[in-house]
Amino acid sequence: MKNPFIEKNVDTAKVFDRNVLLFSLLGTVIIHGEIIFNKIAWHDDMAVTYTAWGLPLEHGRWLNQLFVDFFENFAGAESLGVINGILTGLFIGIIACLLFYIFDVSNKLVRFALSLVFITIPAIAGNFGYMSGSAANFFGILLCVISLFFVDKAIKKKSFKKAIPDYILAVVLAGSAMGQYQCFFTVSLSLLLIYLIKNSISSEISFPEYLRRFFGYIFILFLALIFYLVILKLSLSITHRELSSYSGIDSYGLGSPVDYYFRVKYAYHAFFITNFCLTANMFPFHWDGWRNILYAVIIITLISYIVLILIKKKFRKFIEAIICLALFPLALNFNFVLFGKGLDVDYHAIHSLHMYQWILLFVLPFLFLFSDEMQAFMSEKNAVRRHFMQGLCSVMAVITMIIGCLYARYDNFLYMESEIRQEKAISYFTVLRSRVESVEGYNPAMKVYFINSAEQENSVDETIVNYDYVVTNPYSAPIVNTDFWYMQEYMRIWTGWDPTFGDEAEYADDDRVKAMPAYPSDGSIQLLDGNVIVKFGKTDK
Predict the structure, then answer these.
(1) Of 444, 412, 425, 400, whose CA–CA distance to 491 is shortest?
(2) 143-185, pLDDT tens digit by residue?
């Protein structure tokens, strides 16, 4: 009796699956439609993106700079919401097709379940929060997957000499992905490790060959990193620019051995206790049971595989599996090693945008479930063993679909909350504008000075009931705080108010300003020296 979950009902000789492409594209647009069609992005589009944040090249993102130049010179804008949404869905569809081809995922139901996770995992919502870069970021992830495709193509060639062009392409593509966003090094690392797992469990390669591939993949990543750095150095030299210190870009890789020990420890900790680093948590649910069920099914699957190969005395495969599985959590969370500060336990810069490689956690168990050893066990005459293994495969597919649906629900929570807070912010700035313009003697030609603007106290950012568990960047960030939202741009876009701003430092030591109460109290807006002064700050309650 065959298990319907392992029947090959998709032609795995074809790279592209039309159904997967259409589902990924349409699913992305429909599920994320609220943010794609109805509103400006939660963060970057509030301002002239790269004027506010600095040029991508100065952040080490030379490929991203090419995207910016293209949009500015040809599209006339840096962010086109609908276009970005459609391109993101298309790129995810291609990513899914390539991964299903490389990993021989031939079951339609499993493809559907995994595709649902691919288009809904919170990393997607996080990227749409930075709409100006969503399509470019997923193009970078796609480059990582295409790089793996050429590695797979090279491995299948008998002659190493004939495979050299494929390896070169793999290096260039992986290096270019880092040029879009440095964190995509971790995507390539995770892909190569899970590909090594697939090689190990699906073929009888010798242990020396296993080690050759293991270190060969590390060497490919090393060459990709060198390629990225060489192009970055040339780009900076040609344009006469220097790396900025944004998020420690100019000091990546610096740290003592003890520091790196703590980084690695943190990466493992954040894998097994996923809410350890909330901003990077890919299971942001009220009930931890969903994550625990998923982990339990995966662990049972892995233990079942290990027991099977030990019974068959395949000790080499046992060693290979242990090595790869021990490294798998570190690979998925390797950004903690790249970006973290170890002893300082400062991982604020690591959040959902860096975590798309977590889709491979859902792919991993199916590699083992579809292995020859476990498929043979599913056809056992012993009914208990057969039903146990078939049930395990069914449960894994079902829990994957359930979590995909939960992701879709969570993503739309984020979008709905952003709509609510956006409306409250518009109201906030509309009232502010009205109060400024109602000050006796006000003239539109006057400069407006916002004092202590970073300490604005408002009701916009109060916790909204039922949304207290939102932790995905940038939706968890304050909407009115000017350090993050560039108040002038927000007011101009949403209220049409674009006054001439004065430098608040001019009034930093003015006793008249010090004596003023904080907004919204009466007297918090005054005319001084022919200028409008609005003083913010903490109010006494």
Answers:
(1) 425
(2) 999 999 999 999 988 788 899 999 999 999 999 999 999 999 9
Q: What is the three-class DSSP state of 363?
A: helix
Among 348, 363, 299, smallest CA distance to 477 is for 348
Q: What secondary structure does DSSP assign to 382-446, as a single string?
A: -HHHHHHHHHHHHHHHHHHHHHHHHHHHHHHHHHHHHHHHHHHHHHHHHHHHHHHHTSTT--TTS
- State the CB neighbour count (10 A cutoff) for residue 251: 11
Tokens at 189, concatenated: 């690392």
Tokens of 527: 């005319």
Reference 519, options 459, 460, 458, 461; nearest CA is 458
Q: Kind of pairing, strands 531-535 and 525-528?
A: antiparallel
The secondary structure of residue 72, as a DSSP letter, is I
Please tell me the distance from the alpha carbon of residue 452 to that of residue 454, in angstroms, as a whole number.
5
Strand partners, 526: 533
| Cβ 25 vs Cβ 95: under 8 Å | no
Q: Which of 501, 525, 500 is nearest to 513 (CA)?
A: 525
End-to-end CA distance of the chain: 71
* Burial class of residue 123 (count of CB atoms within 10 Å of its CB; 0-12, 13-18, 19+): buried
Angle at 84 between CA 28 and CA 243, to 5 degrees: 125
Q: Where are the alpha helices (DSSP H) in 283-314?
A: 289-311
Residue 457 CA to residue 123 CA, distance in Å, equals 30
Query: How far does Cα 236 stand from its chain's mean position?
Result: 26
**Omega before 122 within 30 of 0, i.e. cis:** no
Residue type at position 370: F
pTM of the entire structure? 0.90
What lies within 8 Å, CB to CB, of 38 at 6+ separation is 419
Q: Extract the tokens encoding 173.
A: 């593509």
364-367 contacts at long range (C-beta below 8 A, 24 or more positions apart): 364/194, 364/197, 364/298, 364/328, 365/297, 365/298, 365/301, 365/302, 365/396, 366/103, 366/105, 366/110, 366/114, 366/396, 367/103, 367/194, 367/197, 367/198, 367/201, 367/202
Q: Are 114 and 363 in contact (CB under 8 A)?
A: yes
Calpha distance 373→237 (Å, rounded): 55
Q: Which of 350, 531, 538 is nearest to 442 (CA)?
A: 531
The answer to whether 400 and 295 have CB atoms below 8 angstroms apart is: no
β partners of residue 531: 528
Tens-place pLDDT, residues 21-70: 999 999 999 999 999 988 766 665 654 444 444 478 888 888 988 887 77
* Residues whose CB is less than 8 angstroms from the CB of residue 328 and which lie 6 or more positions away in sequence, other chains included: 193, 194, 197, 364
Pairing of strands 531-535, 447-451: parallel
> 487: pLDDT confidence band, cut at 50, 70 and 90?
low
Map residue 532 onto helix, strand or coil: strand
